[in-house]
Amino acid sequence: MSLNKNNFIGSIEILFTGIIWGFIGFFVKELSMMGATSELITFFRVFFAFVFAVIVALIMYGPKSFILTREQLMWCFLDGILTQGIFNYCYSICVEKSGVAIAAVLLYTSPVFNAIISYLVFKEKLGFKRNLILALNIIGCIIAATALDFSFKTVSIFGMLMGLMSGLTYGASPVLGKYANKNPNLFVVIAYNELFASLFVLLFLKPFNNIEIITKKMWIYGIMYGVLITGIAYMFYYDGVKRMTELSIVPVIASIEVVVAAFVGVMIYREPLNIINYIGIVIVIVSIVFMSKASARYKIKQ
To answer: Helices 186-204 and 87-98 meet at what angle, rounded to 10?
Structure first.
């Protein structure tokens, strides 16, 4: 398969992942209305993704596929802890301390962190045009999330630091995923990532302090949340990352999540969006199209 075609398929897979992630808010909102805490919602996501990946891996590859080298386990550990466990933990704190708007803005600093990490690790240079597209994407995300309303009365320094940490860990995901999914058995990698993330959540977030609140309906939504939003989504995400020659564009393409999330809020929960929000959404879409075209023209030395 040609390099350009492989890049194109990878871009489509990551785009599809971003669309799926756009429904995160739906599951979080529904589970919250049922009484689930943020800690429990986080656990649902990582644990049921782990169960899903284990079942699929056993069917597709067999029990022996779970035998990994020390290096493979190390990368899965780092990927799971950082981009699942710590990411969710930091993002939850930012939402609690600084509010949803600031948390969303700080999360989508991830393309900047990813570009820096990709440069340091892979010496990946973007060039003027691609840096311009990256800046356009960030501006679009900020406008889409805030409608340029920055009239925040009080700002928690700690909350903002946690928001930046969520952007950093999310931005590191493509880089760690590139190493973690060197194992040909994709679902084994996902299973280990989510296992380590689940252990982190259990140890540090203690999601079952109020176990009596869990209902049958909550379990059903929790299973759907973990399997669809994480298990199936990461199946496409990791395969897409493996195909990409430029990791810095991965968060840009995945930022379609902002657009989908906005429309989910409008169509399902009747959340109001003004003209400025829509301008931001259009800017995000334009940046994704431009970055995808730039990727298709890019040639990398093998």
So the answer is: 50
